[in-house]
Specification:
By secondary structure, this protein is α/β, with parallel strands linked by helices. It has helices at residues 18-27, 42-52, 73-86, 108-125, 137-150, 166-175, 190-198, 229-240, 244-259; strands spanning 2-4, 30-35, 57-62, 91-100, 129-134, 156-160, 177-182, 205-207. 43% of the residues lie in helices and 17% in strands. The chain is globular, with a radius of gyration of 17 Å.
Length: 263
Protein backbone atom coordinates (compact mmCIF):
# COMPACT_ATOMS: atom_id res chain seq x y z
CA UNK A 1 0.00 0.00 0.00
CA UNK A 2 1.20 3.51 -0.81
CA UNK A 3 -0.07 6.97 0.14
CA UNK A 4 0.45 9.96 -2.14
CA UNK A 5 0.72 12.70 0.46
CA UNK A 6 0.63 15.64 -1.96
CA UNK A 7 -1.26 15.63 -5.26
CA UNK A 8 -3.24 18.30 -7.15
CA UNK A 9 -5.78 15.80 -8.44
CA UNK A 10 -8.27 18.64 -8.96
CA UNK A 11 -6.05 20.20 -11.65
CA UNK A 12 -7.75 20.74 -15.02
CA UNK A 13 -5.34 18.25 -16.59
CA UNK A 14 -7.13 15.37 -14.87
CA UNK A 15 -10.62 16.51 -15.87
CA UNK A 16 -10.96 14.10 -18.83
CA UNK A 17 -8.69 11.38 -17.43
CA UNK A 18 -10.31 10.48 -14.13
CA UNK A 19 -11.11 6.83 -14.82
CA UNK A 20 -7.72 6.02 -16.31
CA UNK A 21 -5.77 7.86 -13.62
CA UNK A 22 -7.72 6.16 -10.85
CA UNK A 23 -7.24 2.74 -12.43
CA UNK A 24 -3.49 3.17 -12.79
CA UNK A 25 -3.19 4.46 -9.21
CA UNK A 26 -5.03 1.46 -7.78
CA UNK A 27 -3.04 -0.93 -9.94
CA UNK A 28 0.16 0.61 -8.53
CA UNK A 29 -1.05 0.06 -4.98
CA UNK A 30 -1.90 3.71 -4.26
CA UNK A 31 -5.13 3.79 -2.32
CA UNK A 32 -5.01 7.12 -0.49
CA UNK A 33 -4.27 10.59 -1.93
CA UNK A 34 -3.97 13.84 0.00
CA UNK A 35 -4.93 17.06 -1.76
CA UNK A 36 -3.35 20.41 -0.84
CA UNK A 37 -5.42 23.55 -1.28
CA UNK A 38 -3.95 26.60 -3.01
CA UNK A 39 -6.51 29.43 -2.64
CA UNK A 40 -10.17 30.26 -2.14
CA UNK A 41 -11.10 29.24 -5.68
CA UNK A 42 -9.73 25.71 -5.30
CA UNK A 43 -11.82 24.84 -2.23
CA UNK A 44 -14.82 23.75 -4.28
CA UNK A 45 -12.62 21.82 -6.68
CA UNK A 46 -11.19 19.81 -3.78
CA UNK A 47 -14.70 18.96 -2.61
CA UNK A 48 -15.62 17.70 -6.08
CA UNK A 49 -12.65 15.34 -6.36
CA UNK A 50 -14.17 12.95 -3.85
CA UNK A 51 -17.20 12.58 -6.09
CA UNK A 52 -15.15 11.45 -9.08
CA UNK A 53 -12.68 8.95 -7.62
CA UNK A 54 -14.89 6.50 -5.75
CA UNK A 55 -12.18 3.81 -5.58
CA UNK A 56 -9.64 6.05 -3.87
CA UNK A 57 -9.53 7.48 -0.40
CA UNK A 58 -9.30 11.24 -0.89
CA UNK A 59 -8.33 13.54 1.98
CA UNK A 60 -8.00 17.33 1.92
CA UNK A 61 -5.86 20.13 3.29
CA UNK A 62 -6.77 23.79 3.59
CA UNK A 63 -4.57 26.85 3.19
CA UNK A 64 -3.21 29.58 0.93
CA UNK A 65 -0.26 28.71 -1.32
CA UNK A 66 2.52 31.34 -1.08
CA UNK A 67 2.36 32.02 -4.83
CA UNK A 68 -1.22 33.20 -4.29
CA UNK A 69 -0.29 35.61 -1.52
CA UNK A 70 -1.09 38.86 -3.29
CA UNK A 71 -2.70 42.15 -2.27
CA UNK A 72 -5.92 40.36 -1.31
CA UNK A 73 -4.21 37.79 0.92
CA UNK A 74 -5.97 38.90 4.10
CA UNK A 75 -9.38 38.55 2.47
CA UNK A 76 -8.36 35.16 1.06
CA UNK A 77 -7.35 33.96 4.52
CA UNK A 78 -10.55 35.32 6.07
CA UNK A 79 -12.61 33.32 3.58
CA UNK A 80 -10.51 30.19 4.00
CA UNK A 81 -10.76 30.39 7.78
CA UNK A 82 -14.53 30.86 7.62
CA UNK A 83 -14.81 27.87 5.28
CA UNK A 84 -12.80 25.73 7.68
CA UNK A 85 -14.94 26.73 10.64
CA UNK A 86 -18.01 25.45 8.79
CA UNK A 87 -16.35 22.27 7.50
CA UNK A 88 -13.64 21.46 10.04
CA UNK A 89 -14.00 17.68 9.86
CA UNK A 90 -13.24 17.70 6.11
CA UNK A 91 -9.57 18.67 6.55
CA UNK A 92 -6.55 16.89 7.99
CA UNK A 93 -3.82 19.52 7.48
CA UNK A 94 -3.11 23.19 6.85
CA UNK A 95 -1.52 23.37 3.43
CA UNK A 96 -0.10 24.08 1.07
CA UNK A 97 1.52 27.00 2.87
CA UNK A 98 5.04 28.37 3.12
CA UNK A 99 7.33 30.67 1.17
CA UNK A 100 8.24 30.91 -2.52
CA UNK A 101 10.87 33.46 -3.51
CA UNK A 102 11.56 31.96 -6.93
CA UNK A 103 8.89 33.79 -8.89
CA UNK A 104 8.43 36.99 -6.90
CA UNK A 105 10.55 38.34 -4.04
CA UNK A 106 8.46 41.50 -3.68
CA UNK A 107 5.80 39.63 -1.68
CA UNK A 108 8.20 38.27 0.94
CA UNK A 109 6.85 40.30 3.85
CA UNK A 110 3.26 39.40 2.94
CA UNK A 111 4.22 35.75 2.65
CA UNK A 112 5.70 35.83 6.15
CA UNK A 113 2.55 37.39 7.60
CA UNK A 114 0.30 34.93 5.79
CA UNK A 115 2.46 32.01 6.87
CA UNK A 116 2.44 33.04 10.52
CA UNK A 117 -1.34 33.34 10.55
CA UNK A 118 -1.68 29.86 9.08
CA UNK A 119 0.87 28.39 11.46
CA UNK A 120 -1.26 29.77 14.27
CA UNK A 121 -4.28 28.04 12.73
CA UNK A 122 -2.45 24.74 12.66
CA UNK A 123 -1.77 24.87 16.38
CA UNK A 124 -5.27 26.13 17.21
CA UNK A 125 -6.88 23.43 15.07
CA UNK A 126 -4.35 20.73 16.08
CA UNK A 127 -3.40 19.98 12.47
CA UNK A 128 -0.04 19.40 10.77
CA UNK A 129 1.21 21.78 8.08
CA UNK A 130 2.33 21.01 4.51
CA UNK A 131 5.14 23.43 3.72
CA UNK A 132 6.03 24.73 0.27
CA UNK A 133 9.64 25.95 0.29
CA UNK A 134 11.21 27.27 -2.90
CA UNK A 135 14.34 29.45 -2.86
CA UNK A 136 13.43 30.33 0.72
CA UNK A 137 14.95 28.00 3.33
CA UNK A 138 17.07 30.87 4.66
CA UNK A 139 14.01 33.07 5.15
CA UNK A 140 11.61 30.32 6.23
CA UNK A 141 13.50 28.60 9.02
CA UNK A 142 13.59 31.64 11.34
CA UNK A 143 9.82 32.05 10.87
CA UNK A 144 9.21 28.41 11.77
CA UNK A 145 11.60 28.49 14.71
CA UNK A 146 9.98 31.61 16.15
CA UNK A 147 6.52 30.09 15.65
CA UNK A 148 7.63 26.86 17.32
CA UNK A 149 8.87 28.84 20.32
CA UNK A 150 5.66 30.87 20.36
CA UNK A 151 3.59 27.71 20.42
CA UNK A 152 5.72 25.70 22.84
CA UNK A 153 6.82 23.14 20.26
CA UNK A 154 3.33 22.20 19.08
CA UNK A 155 3.95 22.74 15.36
CA UNK A 156 4.37 19.63 13.23
CA UNK A 157 4.25 18.93 9.51
CA UNK A 158 6.02 18.04 6.30
CA UNK A 159 8.46 19.84 4.05
CA UNK A 160 6.63 19.13 0.79
CA UNK A 161 8.93 18.34 -2.14
CA UNK A 162 11.96 18.68 0.10
CA UNK A 163 14.75 20.36 -1.85
CA UNK A 164 17.26 21.05 0.90
CA UNK A 165 20.60 19.44 1.65
CA UNK A 166 22.04 17.76 4.72
CA UNK A 167 22.23 21.04 6.65
CA UNK A 168 18.53 21.72 6.06
CA UNK A 169 17.70 18.15 7.11
CA UNK A 170 19.44 18.67 10.45
CA UNK A 171 17.78 22.03 11.03
CA UNK A 172 14.34 20.64 10.17
CA UNK A 173 14.82 17.74 12.58
CA UNK A 174 15.85 20.14 15.36
CA UNK A 175 12.65 22.04 14.67
CA UNK A 176 10.53 19.17 15.99
CA UNK A 177 8.08 16.65 14.55
CA UNK A 178 8.69 17.40 10.87
CA UNK A 179 8.75 15.04 7.91
CA UNK A 180 10.19 15.17 4.40
CA UNK A 181 8.16 14.72 1.20
CA UNK A 182 10.06 12.74 -1.44
CA UNK A 183 8.89 12.84 -5.05
CA UNK A 184 9.93 12.96 -8.69
CA UNK A 185 12.88 15.29 -8.19
CA UNK A 186 14.69 12.48 -6.36
CA UNK A 187 14.75 10.45 -9.56
CA UNK A 188 16.70 13.13 -11.44
CA UNK A 189 20.12 14.18 -10.17
CA UNK A 190 20.78 11.08 -8.10
CA UNK A 191 24.38 12.03 -7.32
CA UNK A 192 23.07 15.02 -5.38
CA UNK A 193 19.89 13.64 -3.83
CA UNK A 194 20.84 10.08 -2.82
CA UNK A 195 23.11 11.40 -0.08
CA UNK A 196 20.33 13.65 1.21
CA UNK A 197 17.90 10.75 1.30
CA UNK A 198 20.34 8.66 3.35
CA UNK A 199 20.55 11.43 5.95
CA UNK A 200 16.80 11.61 6.61
CA UNK A 201 15.58 9.34 9.42
CA UNK A 202 13.41 6.58 7.96
CA UNK A 203 10.58 7.42 10.34
CA UNK A 204 10.39 10.93 8.80
CA UNK A 205 10.07 9.95 5.11
CA UNK A 206 6.89 10.44 3.07
CA UNK A 207 6.16 9.80 -0.60
CA UNK A 208 4.33 12.26 -2.84
CA UNK A 209 3.90 13.25 -6.47
CA UNK A 210 2.83 16.92 -6.59
CA UNK A 211 1.02 15.75 -9.73
CA UNK A 212 0.59 16.97 -12.39
CA UNK A 213 3.98 18.57 -11.65
CA UNK A 214 7.46 17.12 -10.97
CA UNK A 215 7.21 14.09 -13.24
CA UNK A 216 9.80 11.38 -12.46
CA UNK A 217 12.70 10.91 -14.86
CA UNK A 218 11.38 7.76 -16.51
CA UNK A 219 8.13 9.51 -17.45
CA UNK A 220 9.59 12.79 -18.66
CA UNK A 221 7.47 14.32 -21.42
CA UNK A 222 4.26 13.36 -19.59
CA UNK A 223 2.28 15.14 -16.93
CA UNK A 224 2.74 13.54 -13.54
CA UNK A 225 0.04 11.37 -11.94
CA UNK A 226 -0.29 9.31 -8.74
CA UNK A 227 0.76 5.97 -10.28
CA UNK A 228 4.13 7.47 -11.24
CA UNK A 229 4.98 7.76 -7.54
CA UNK A 230 6.24 4.19 -7.66
CA UNK A 231 9.33 5.47 -9.47
CA UNK A 232 10.22 7.61 -6.45
CA UNK A 233 9.48 4.64 -4.18
CA UNK A 234 11.89 2.49 -6.20
CA UNK A 235 14.64 5.06 -5.77
CA UNK A 236 13.99 5.17 -2.03
CA UNK A 237 14.10 1.38 -1.87
CA UNK A 238 17.42 1.26 -3.73
CA UNK A 239 19.09 4.03 -1.72
CA UNK A 240 17.93 2.73 1.67
CA UNK A 241 18.45 -0.93 0.69
CA UNK A 242 14.86 -1.88 1.37
CA UNK A 243 12.23 -3.78 -0.56
CA UNK A 244 9.58 -1.80 -2.41
CA UNK A 245 6.94 -3.34 -0.16
CA UNK A 246 8.83 -2.24 2.94
CA UNK A 247 9.09 1.31 1.58
CA UNK A 248 5.32 1.33 1.02
CA UNK A 249 4.65 0.09 4.54
CA UNK A 250 7.15 2.50 6.11
CA UNK A 251 6.03 5.65 4.29
CA UNK A 252 2.35 4.81 4.74
CA UNK A 253 2.89 4.32 8.47
CA UNK A 254 4.70 7.67 8.62
CA UNK A 255 1.84 9.37 6.78
CA UNK A 256 -0.67 7.81 9.14
CA UNK A 257 1.32 9.09 12.11
CA UNK A 258 1.59 12.64 10.83
CA UNK A 259 -1.86 13.11 9.36
CA UNK A 260 -3.83 10.98 11.80
CA UNK A 261 -4.98 8.57 9.12
CA UNK A 262 -6.54 5.25 10.09
CA UNK A 263 -4.59 2.24 8.90
Amino acid sequence: MFIDTHCHLYDAYFQDRKHEVEGRALAAGIQTILLPNINVDSLEALDNVQNHYAGLRIERMIGLHPCYVKEDWRDQLDQIEAHYQKNATNYLAVGEIGMDLYWDTSTESMQVEALNRQLDWAVEWDLPVALHVRNSFKQLFPVLEEAQERHNGKLRGVFHCFSGGKKQVKRAIRLGDFYFGIGGSYTMNRSATDVVLRNIPKERLLLETDAPYLTPKSYQGNKNEPSFMIESAKVMAEVLEMTLESVGDMTSRNAQNLFGLDA
